[in-house]
């Protein structure tokens, strides 16, 4: 199973400047674990010290927000994940 993962440019420093990656897994969390195996520094960019996804990280599956399931959200072969940083302000 292969899922396309497109990451916000802010993460390039953690993924050897690759912003489009391939991951394996049946959930968003498994796909992130797969990426972290390849790029261990990515873990601290996505998760807090308690292993929770940072609140300012938003994940989309095929253009739809994975919230509130996030890490448990199922994915299938050919799906596309987008990992973004939420920006607020005015």
What does this structure look like?
The chain has 90 residues and is of the alpha+beta class. The chain has a single domain, classed as Beta-grasp domain (Ubiquitin-like (UB roll), Roll). 18% of the residues lie in helices and 24% in strands. It has two helices and five strands, in the order E-E-H-H-E-E-E. The chain has helices spanning 28-38, 42-46, and strands at 3-7, 20-23, 57-61, 64-65, 80-85. Strand 3 (57-61) and strand 4 (64-65) form a beta hairpin. The chain starts with a strand and ends in a 5-residue tail after the last strand. The relative contact order is 0.26. The model has no long low-confidence stretch (mean pLDDT 95).
Brief rundown of the structure:
The protein is an alpha+beta fold and about 90 residues long.
Mean pLDDT: 95
| Secondary-structure element series | EEHHEEE
Q: Please state how the strands of the largest beta sheet are arranged side by side.
A: 2-1-5-3-4
Largest sheet: 5 strands, mixed
Share of helix among residues? 10-25%
Features of the shown structure:
90 residues, alpha+beta, Ubiquitin-like (UB roll), 5-stranded mixed beta sheet, 2 helices, 18% helix, 24% strand
């Amino acid at each position: 199973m292969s899922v396309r993962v497109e990451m916000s440019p802010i993460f390039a420093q953690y993924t050897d400047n690759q912003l489009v990656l391939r991951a394996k897994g049946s959930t968003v969390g498994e796909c992130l674990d797969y990426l972290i195996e390849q790029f261990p520094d990515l873990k601290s960019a996505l998760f807090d010290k308690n292993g929770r996804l940072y609140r300012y990280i938003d994940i989309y599956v095929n253009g739809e927000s994975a919230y509130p399931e996030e890490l448990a959200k199922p994915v299938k072969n050919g799906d596309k994940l987008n990992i973004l940083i939420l920006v607020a302000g005015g």
